[in-house]
Amino acid sequence: MAITYAVLLFLIFYSFQPTLSLYEDQVGLTDWHQQYIGKVKQAVFHTHKTGRKRVVVSTEDNVIATLDLRHGEIFWRHVLGHNDVVDGIDIALGKYVITLSSEGRILRAWNLPDGQMVWESSLHGPKHSKSLLLMTNVIIEKDNVVVIFSNGRLHAVSCIDGEVLWNKDFEAESLEVQKVIQPPGSNFVYVVGFAASSQFEMYQINATNGELLKHESEAFSGRFSGEVSLVSSETLVALDSTGLILLRISFHEGKISIQQTPISDLVEDSPGPAVIIPSSIMGLFTIKINAVTIFIRVIGKGKLEVVEKANHETAVGDALSLSEGQQAFALVQHAGRDIHLTVKLAHDWGGDLLKESIKMDQQRGLVHKVFINNYVRTDGSYGFRALIVMEDHSLLLLQQGTIVWSREDGLASIIDVTTSELPVERAGVSVAKVELNLFEWLKGHMLKLKGTLMLATPEDIAAIQYMRLKSSEKSKMTRDHNGFRKLLIALTRAGKLFALHTGDGRIVWSRLLQSLHKSEACQHPIGLNLSPWQVPHHHALDENPSVLVVGRCGPSSDALGILSFIDSYTGKELSSSRLVHSVAQVIPLPYTDSTEQRLHLLIDADKHAHLYPETPEAISIFRREFSNIYWYSVEDENGIIKGYALKSKCNGNVDDKFCFDARELWSIVLPSESEKIIATVTRKMNEAVHTQAKLIAADQDVMYKYVSRNLLFVATVAPKASGEIGSVTPEESWLVVYLIDTVTGCVLHRMTHHGSQGPVEAVFSENWVVYHYFNLRAHRYEMSVIEIYDQSRADNKDVWKLVVGKHNLTSPISSYSRSEVVTKSQSYFFTHSLKAIAVTSTAKGITSKQLLMGTIGDQVLALDKRFLDPRRSVNPTQAEREEGIIPLTDSLPIIPQSYITHNIRVEGLRGIITVAAKLESTTLVFAHGLDLFFTHFAPSRTYDSLTEDFSCALLLITIVALVAAIFVTWLLSQRKELQDKWR
Amino acid sequence: MEKGKGVMGSGRRWAVDFSDNSTAPSSRDIPDPPGFTRASVDQDDSTVSRQKKDAESNWKAQKAWEVAQAPFKNLLMMGFMMWMAGNTVHLFSIGITFSALWQPISALQGVGKVFEPYKDSKVELLGPKLLFIALNLGGLALGVWKLNTLGLLPTHASDWVSSLPPAQEVEYSGGGIPL
Description:
Chain A is mostly beta strands.
């Protein structure tokens, strides 16, 4: 047996069932949790005199939430499933929030104060169509009625209990219903739409019983282009498909008239087609020609008049009904660093109800949406508050010319995360906001001591807790000894970078990337990938680290790429470039140049490799390693995995010496009729592995791990079984897993799980992979582990050779030289379905590993890797038990204390990221989804540091007391001795 | 000493010993009175003193052998203790093992001192010393064996490979599903 084994045994002995849970007073010490809702799509204010003022919002992340209008906090929030998109929301009876979701199939009512669901009804219809929600003031048998048009059917639903009162089908094949309108004070609704894009249809329907009152239609010589604006309860404005002619459609008293006005008549120098911005402001509508927003008024008998042309970016809000049929609407215009919020009356363009100018943070970008709400001031005039949604998805409330609150909801849609070290602490630079003075320090320690000795009063305990939570130590802007303080750099879907401090989760800086900004050349820029670019170690004091953001001009794979380099400490965009090639893959290479910039290989859609940074030094480093660099691509649609090597300079581009052609080395073609790739996973590039040997204590043996960065885990399922769980029978469903060496294309291991099905969540670390799937036969989720060992080095067992160093265990190895591997695997049942899976990572890789699983309940559950050890058996021997092998059980235990998110839910959990701290025992865990959660996690407890509640003061006092006692007793004994001598 | 005791031994109710005990080793138990020097008497009678010296060296040799054999008992004791401690690593077994290692080592360090009292030109101390050393080495071996059974000796391949970092790979490959 081995020394290390004995030491390990000691560790295991102490951490046999590691207590991962925490005490109540430890919550919030190292963890933080932030709640977000995503980009707001629709907002409805609820500002009755009684009760708290709130706003109900629905977002693009399928969240329904009510926010406190005073502070922007979430009162309640419901996250609907990813396929349950919210189509419309409204407030009914002043106490229910009505939501229409899931393409108009589900209508729900939530209790406004507490968010409890009151009722839910499902609406079905004959065909797919637009979903419209209209709150009517029609009352049938004391029930308020909400009218819904969805899936080709008009439904009237009671607001009280969700009962469908009547419904009516609109089955005409090509009818596309655009609007459902209730003229004020009437008890009928108009359903208007286009049939076959060239015919206007109008149905008048009795809202009390669904009876068809009138049906008219009118053909139009051209074609309609979709969107419409409502300018009165019986007049619409639309555009024809060329975007050059405005159509004013009136259906007053059942008579349809279509009046055509070419835009060129209204706007002299109109350059190109217009787009209508859907709205429903009485007598006014908005069109947009390129970047110019044009407001057009409808006067009297079909006359149109341009009231304003705005060249600045402008956002227009929907109409808000004031008293006596007056309507107000808001528009927000950008002017340099300021935004101008204007609230106008619909019928009176000149008279502004409100004109405010607000200084806006440049990093929020343009205003995308504006929602207004009015209140009556003490002098009887109207005041307005505006909720605006910015380009970076943040949400702000403006009132009386100031930003009352803002929410960084862009953080709800993180694409990629990386970390960066903080600046090194320099002498003479005070970084803490408030340096504690000696008195406060002493006071703090006295309080702590009182707490330890159980003398503290409840106030003292509260003070101690406050002190612990607000410790300036954890939120400093410098590196700490343990490596707990870092910057989490997150790229969001809006193209904004955020740097969060791991201590308290605050935003250190944020930057809306100019290179990911919409422009002429780049219409739909998206961020793809974030990776550390430069991590200075040698010049850590005077150089800042930087990160690389890779983006693309559009969703298609051949869109041109964008690179942007950002300083990690300040968020400044150091440089950015538009690439002349597309970006299909970003491969960070394990080489850095003399300035410690990491070499990156960008693969474009034509399989050319482009080297960055484009410096002669980089190319010389690259040349040296040229023959050892390979890459592979997984084409999951056609089930082919291909491996490439670099060949030569690109043929096409003469000048570009940073471009290389690829040579196809190998390809694995999976039979498309029986296998479909659903998951691939590789090891993390920066993972530290402490040892290559796995000690088998039972027979005093050693096995050599097959530790390779070039391993790829691929999971495939039967094409039939790629749908939902339960859509196939066990006989026609299987899951095949592969372990592939990506240099040679050698399949090292292949295993079939019959009767199993995806989705597969997998994690690869060291020499093992753990994956999660569904077993159709057992009707349960399963988790399997595969461990892979190198058999070709197994004969390195002679102790003497090892002692004198005559072995080949540390000599570099090539994928071409070895292929003898042994795998061990085992499967277990598991209760939860998973959203994400990750593994802890520590600085040196010595600490035992735990799996972190994002459960369906949006929590993060830690599970010791020892539960997924293929050597588990039903009756392990004494030696195996000592080694820490747990007796085999058919299912993996879920220990309630090992939820590292304790009682918190990370709503919409998408990813778990683990980062090693400098302290070997500790991993930093960051889970993101809609919410963000961060905590420190010690897989084998913090064996290398004192716990946070260790009282240094008590230790010091004990030592002082002991020294004093020794001194006193020494004095006493001296005196006694003297007396004895005199006797 | 035993000789004297034998003479004074039990059985008889009383006895008067007329033999001159002044030169016998037993008389050394009683310190000589101040001012009295025995040397002058000894020198007078060389045969008596030679006899006396022989007896003393005999006794010393006997004693030396006894001392040399003493670790044997210790060895048995240690063996029993080790058996009691079991083969798992915990405070007790480690304590026993380390004391089992420490005792022979300290004894070996003090070999000279242990045999100091029996040093004599006539006494052959090599034999007892060798026995003493052999027995202590046996104790040490027992300790080392125990250490090994506890798994605290690097005698297996695993002890040497576990500190080796994973080998470097020549090739590097990256990629994945296109973004």
